[in-house]
Every structure is written in C-alpha cells, then in structure tokens.
Amino acid sequence: MKLSALALLAVIPAASAFSPAVSGRVNTALNVGGSLDTRTGAGIGLDSSAGSLSAPKRKGVDPADTILVQGGSLKTWSFASPALERLQVRLTTEGRPLDADIELWQGPDNTPCKMRVYVEDGSLRPFSAVIETPRGPNTVAIRNIGQIEFPLAAKVAADDVDRPAADISSAAMTIQGGALRTYPFDPSVESVQIMLKTDGRPLNARIELLQGPNNNKQVIELYTEDGLDRPFFAVIETPGSGNVVRVVNTAPVEFPMTASVVPNEINTDYSTSGVVIGGDTGW
C-alpha cells in the first residue's frame, strides 16, 4: 500500500510539467468591427470611415456638400420656394465612368427637363450644368444607372450657379432639325461654355465631346419642353488636345434651335513648341 501511494505522488508532478501555462493568455477571437491588439491596446481592425467614398476636390466641388449616389440608386433634391429660377447640378467620380439620368420634376407626372449624361472619367471631366426652374416648387432627381462598382458624388445647389459669358449670344448659330455642327478647340482651351435654346418649341439635342475619331469622352442627351423658358447651359471640361464639341439637333426639321459654344477657361501658359503625340499641333 505504501509503495502504490509513493508511485502516485511521482506521477502527478510529471503530468503538471506538460500542462499549458495559465499566465499570459492571448485572445485570438476575430472582432470584425475592429479587433484589439492585446499588447498595445490599440484597435487593429477596419476603420468604419475607411471604406467611404468622398467627392474629389476639383472644380470647386466641396465634398461636404455632396451626396454619394451608389450604382442603381436614386436621390432627390426638393426646393419648395418659387423664387428659385435656376439650379446648379454637379456630378463627379473618383476617376471611374459616370452614367446618370437627371430629371426635373414639377408637379405630378410632369417632367419639363431631363437628360442622360455619360462621362468617361468623372474626375478629369466632371459634369456641370444649369437647370432652369421657373414657377416652383421643383424637385431634381438623379439616378445612377451605372453598376454598383461605379458610385458618383452629386451636388445640387441654388446659391452657386454658373453664369454664361456676356458675349455668348453673339456666337449663336442656328441648327436645323436633324442637322449637326462641330466646334474644334485649341489645346490651350481647358473648358468651354455651351448654351442651347429655341424660340419656345421643345428642345431635343445631343452634345458630344470628342477627342480623336469616334472617341466620345462625354455625351449629353437633352430634352426640354420649352427651349425659351428653359434653355440649357453647361460648362464642359476639355483637357488635352484634339477636343471637338459636336452638337446634334435630334428633333424633326420643324424644330430648329440655336447653339452657342465658346471657350470658358484658357491656359495662357500653354506652349505649342513641345512634341505632341499624334500631331495635333505644330512644332
């Protein structure tokens, strides 16, 4: 009996030598919302703001005033005051394509103005246009018809509205229904102003920014029920060389319109003495 008791006491210390240490335990559980580093106490998980998309700081667009519109979603801006005569609409992305529908709602089932906008690069060429809103209240609806991987940042404001140049009416040219006109610009022109109007008839037009043969950088398909009461005005960015603005009157021959396309911003420091790939300018 004494021999068996001594053998049992000899086995117990040997077994404790293989047991894991209790001190210094590390919590290995995964915390999706933000795991905690047990050594420093600092969070090493994902920041909730890291995945958010902010509008690029370009062309006077303040990220604080923009609203993110995901692909396939719709956002609306309502203005109840009838004193507002026009609104500024700006759309940007972080370098991805921009594809959106813009509509002006005035009363039930009344859409006096709508447009389809496509931009190849929403950061390099942000969309900026003015929508006339006489006789409110009005609601501007912007739908991102792109895929979910292509969000856009939108801003609709009434206090910061672009104004056309004083001499833009002197450059007006009549475009008959079904006809088109092209406006080539020098590489020093960084942006252009476009004004479209009619004598009170409906306005149907297609505006294209080309850079090279059949290379559309920006496309705007426009409809306005009254081109005199609701003319269209926009500023299009034209970086690089070989830019051509093409305006097409998609209405029948009974609905002519007038178009004015003039430079908005000119880079006076641009030099044509350098080498340009493609031979767009001289040496």
Number of strands: 16
Major sheet size, sense and barrel closure: 8 strands, antiparallel
Compressed to H and E, one letter per element, the order equals: HEEEEEEEEEEEEEEEE
- Could you name the ranges where pLDDT drops below 50 across 5 or more consecutive residues? 5-58
SSE class = mainly beta
> Whole-number radius of gyration?
31 Å
- Termini separation comes to 111 Å
Global mean pLDDT: 81
| Helix proportion | under 10%
User: Strand order, biggest sheet?
Assistant: 1-8-3-6-14-11-16-9
Question: Globular, elongated, flat, extended or rod-shaped: what is the shape?
Answer: globular
Number of helices: 1
Give the percentage of residues in beta strands.
35-45%
Structural write-up:
There is one protein chain. The protein has 283 residues and is mainly beta. It is 5% helix and 38% strand. The chain is built from one helix and 16 strands. The chain has an eight-stranded antiparallel β-sheet, with no helix packed on it. A hairpin with a 7-residue loop joins β4 and β5. The protein is globular, with a radius of gyration of 31 Å. The chain starts with a helix and ends in a 17-residue tail after the last strand. About 19% of the residues have low confidence.
Summary keywords:
283 residues; mainly beta; 8-stranded antiparallel β-sheet; 38% strand
Short characterization:
The radius of gyration is 31 Å and the shape is globular.
Strands, helices and their partners?
Blueprint lengths: L1 H15 L50 E3 L4 E6 L6 E7 L5 E8 L7 E7 L7 E6 L5 E7 L7 E6 L15 E3 L4 E5 L4 E9 L5 E9 L4 E9 L7 E6 L5 E7 L7 E10 L17
Antiparallel strand pairs: 1-8, 2-7, 3-6, 3-8, 4-5, 4-7, 5-13, 6-14, 9-16, 10-15, 11-14, 11-16, 12-13, 12-15
